[in-house]
């Protein structure tokens, strides 16, 4: 061939292993090159002949259906011109014979997604088979998701396992969850969601738009998104929300079928949204709020209606207090807001109420919630109410066949407790309440509350029951009442405790302690009730109540037992498909005074543990055995037991049918594992049965080369 032959590209090496190591993307189970924006990566080009000074060469990166330079969706990079107008850069590192090594740096503001690369030499165009994935970059100072702390980046971007905190404010426990953002098809599922979001490509630069869109797409409500929510108690035509142990199976099924997966409840939505955000490169964490206010109609108040036995009456309530609710925080700069609102932002994909016509929520700066700046986007009023509403208790008595409502008391510190997430680099709970709220009763809290209530109109204190036609119409001109807790003259206090472990099959041994502290003789009428309820606060069964009159002198106390036999609740436990909690309510009235007090507590049942037996370390690609052992220490059989286990980078999700496990029986299942990834890996196991919806555990193992 004579020297004037056309220059042709004969191949491109994406140098996947060295690029992905430097970009912290080596864990993604995908053949393509995955890189983060604003950071250089190298490509090795091979040509049909040696490069000459006169040769024209351009690398063209395009995103979207119709990439165009003018829209910033097509970048044409010429190694001789180094800088492109789009903020991308290219430089030649070395040339030898027929090869050329180039370094490409994308703009830290580039749209995130799948890019097609083609190389133009003169009139020839070379198109490699595979696309390049470009993600957000928390390691790059120029990226709005930049996170300075390496330990935090490890936790909030790279950790593919974690805990989601559930239970009740009285008994919080961590449920292990596999996020699995690096597993097969997960990145592709996230790219599919980005396309489905119909976000303009220019808005894909901005994690504010991306996280808001993902909060909408993880629920199926408007857009046939990932998960269908179901709180009905009937999950027969899908998977019960209690049965999932991670996001991987959900996102893989969704990507395969492109149809919503059945079913999710809040922790499942939050687990999947964490996976999606971490997968795209946005630092993210699951956040659990205990005693979370719902549907407060923008008035910062939840009304709780009790009958004369102290039992909660659901049918009257328009709003509810969930024992816990789980949402997400994502980390980013808010260039769309005044200074000072960067950092953690709350987003929520559980479909509760529409925002701008769609079931989506956030991002809302934690600082705006803490300071009471509830006019800032997005949905800050809604999140503020979840952590700051007041509880008003009403006693409902039948008078001449009609319901008569009396206000018992107001509790201003019962909502938004123990806001929790997994600690950085440790398997323990971190309390982040202080990032959402100032200390209860502090001067800052009072100021934030005043600011917030100037944007949220608290209504006057009238019960807002469904059938409240028996009330005088509210006078329109009246000022909203700011709630205060009354201080009882007797110094009345209530405490609810358990006297023994709450094992299914045993009687529930509970106690209500009545205390007075002021001098004098006090006669207290006490009622206490016990109910089974779902985590959403919905009552499933009334189990029994106690009524006593207690006489106390000055500073003294008395304990009133409340005992529920096992056969009162075991049928309910076996007939529902959700995990239920034990809810105790006490109402005390001091005779001859206006002192009235209500106290409620929710407790979780306690279960025998599962143990995992395996070596502490193992080698890459070498088999090791792993055993799961469970002893039924309860005095009731567990029917229809299933064990689900998963170890990311060790083995795919596996299910064992364990049949019925009688009291005292030991179950043992074994699996042979072959690790495919190094580092600290985790194995998660969950046992489900008719009586107990979930007992879960996890254990770590270190995999070496």
The helix tally amounts to 11
CATH first level of the largest domain: Alpha Beta
Tell me, briefly, the overall form: elongated
Which oligomeric form is depicted?
A: single chain
Entry summary:
With 705 residues, the protein is mostly beta strands. It has 11 helices and 38 strands. Strands 2, 4, 5, 8, 9 and 10 form a 6-stranded mixed β-sheet that branches. It has a 6-stranded antiparallel β-sheet with strand order 19-18-17-15-22-23, sandwiched between helices.
In words, what does this structure look like?
It is a single chain. The protein has 705 residues and is mostly beta strands. The chain folds into four domains: 9-135, Immunoglobulin-like (Sandwich); 157-455, Alpha-Beta Complex (Coagulation Factor XIII, Chain A, domain 2), CATH 3.90.260.10; 492-603, Immunoglobulin-like (Sandwich), CATH 2.60.40; 610-703, Sandwich (Immunoglobulin-like). 15% of the residues lie in helices and 40% in strands. The protein is built from eleven helices and 38 strands. The strands form ten sheets. Strands 2, 4, 5, 8, 9 and 10 form a six-stranded mixed β-sheet that branches. The chain has a six-stranded antiparallel β-sheet with strand order 19-18-17-15-22-23, with helices on both faces. The longest helix has 15 residues, at 266-280.
């Amino acid at each position: 061939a004579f020297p004037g032959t056309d220059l042709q590209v004969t191949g491109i090496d994406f140098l996947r292993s060295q690029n992905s190591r430097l970009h912290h993307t080596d864990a993604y189970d995908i053949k393509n090159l995955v890189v983060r924006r604003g950071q250089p990566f190298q490509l090795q080009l091979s040509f049909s002949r040696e490069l000459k000074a006169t040769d024209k060469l351009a690398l063209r990166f395009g995103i979207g259906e119709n990439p165009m330079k003018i829209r910033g969706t097509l970048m044409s990079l010429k190694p001789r011109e180094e800088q492109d107008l789009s903020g991308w850069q290219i430089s030649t590192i070395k040339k030898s014979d027929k090869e050329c090594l180039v370094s490409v740096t994308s703009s830290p503001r580039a749209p995130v997604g799948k890019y097609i690369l083609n190389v133009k030499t003169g009139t020839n165009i070379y198109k490699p088979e595979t696309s390049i994935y470009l993600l957000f970059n928390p390691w790059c100072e120029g990226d709005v998701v930049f996170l300075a702390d390496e330990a935090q980046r490890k936790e909030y971007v790279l950790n593919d396992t974690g805990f989601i905190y559930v239970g009740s404010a009285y008994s919080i426990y961590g449920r292990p969850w596999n996020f699995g953002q690096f597993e097969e098809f997960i990145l592709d599922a996230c790219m599919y969601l980005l396309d489905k979001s119909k976000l303009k490509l220019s808005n894909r630069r901005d994690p504010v738009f991306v996280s808001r869109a993902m909060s909408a797409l993880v629920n199926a409500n408007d857009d046939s998104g990932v998960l269908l929510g179901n709180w009905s108690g009937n999950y027969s035509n899908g998977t019960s929300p209690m049965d999932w142990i991670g996001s991987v199976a959900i996102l893989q099924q969704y990507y395969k079928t492109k149809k919503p997966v059945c079913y999710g409840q809040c922790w499942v939505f939050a687990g999947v949204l964490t996976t999606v955000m971490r997968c795209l490169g946005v630092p993210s964490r699951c956040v659990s709020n205990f005693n979370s206010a719902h549907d407060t109609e923008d008035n910062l108040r939840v009304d709780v209606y009790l009958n004369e036995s102290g039992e909660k009456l659901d049918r009257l309530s328009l709003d509810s207090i969930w024992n816990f609710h789980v949402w997400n925080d994502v980390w980013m700069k808010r260039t769309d807001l005044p200074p000072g609102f960067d950092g953690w932002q709350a987003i929520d994909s559980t479909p509760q109420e529409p925002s701008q016509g769609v079931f989506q929520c956030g991002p809302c700066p934690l600082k705006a919630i803490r300071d009471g700046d509830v006019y800032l986007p997005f949905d800050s009023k809604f999140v503020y109410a979840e952590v700051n509403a007041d509880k008003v208790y009403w006693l409902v008595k039948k008078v001449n066949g009609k319901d008569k409502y009396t206000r018992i008391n107001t509790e201003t510190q019962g909502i938004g407790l123990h806001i929790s997430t997994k600690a950085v680099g440790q398997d323990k709970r971190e309390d982040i309440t202080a990032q959402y709220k100032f200390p209860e009763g502090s001067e800052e809290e009072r100021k934030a509350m005043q600011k917030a209530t100037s944007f949220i109109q608290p209504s006057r204190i009238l019960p807002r029951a469904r059938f409240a036609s028996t009330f005088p119409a509210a006078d329109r001109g009246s000022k909203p009442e700011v709630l205060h807790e009354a201080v009882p003259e007797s110094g009345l206090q209530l405490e609810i405790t358990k006297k023994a472990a709450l094992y299914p099959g045993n009687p529930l041994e509970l106690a209500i302690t009545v205390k007075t502290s002021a001098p004098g003789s006090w006669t207290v009428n006490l009622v206490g009730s016990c109910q089974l309820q779902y985590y959403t606060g919905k009552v499933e069964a009334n189990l029994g109540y106690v009524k006593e009159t207690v006489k106390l002198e000055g500073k003294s106390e008395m304990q009133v037992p409340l005992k529920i036999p096992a056969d009162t609740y075991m049928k309910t436990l076996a007939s529902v498909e959700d995990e239920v909690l034990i809810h105790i309510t006490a109402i005390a009235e001091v005779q001859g005074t206006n002192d009235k007090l209500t106290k409620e507590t929710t407790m979780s049942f306690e279960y025998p543990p599962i143990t995992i037996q395996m070596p502490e370390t193992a080698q890459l690609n070498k088999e090791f055995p792993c055993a799961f052992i469970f002893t039924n220490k309860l005095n009731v059989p567990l029917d229809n037991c299933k064990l689900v286990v998963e170890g990311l980078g060790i083995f795919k999700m596996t299910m064992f049918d364990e049949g019925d496990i009688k009291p005292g029986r030991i179950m043992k299942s074994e699996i042979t594992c072959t690790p495919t990834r190094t580092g600290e890996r985790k194995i998660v196991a969950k046992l489900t049965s008719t009586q107990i919806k979930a007992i879960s555990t996890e254990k770590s193992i270190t995999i070496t080369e």
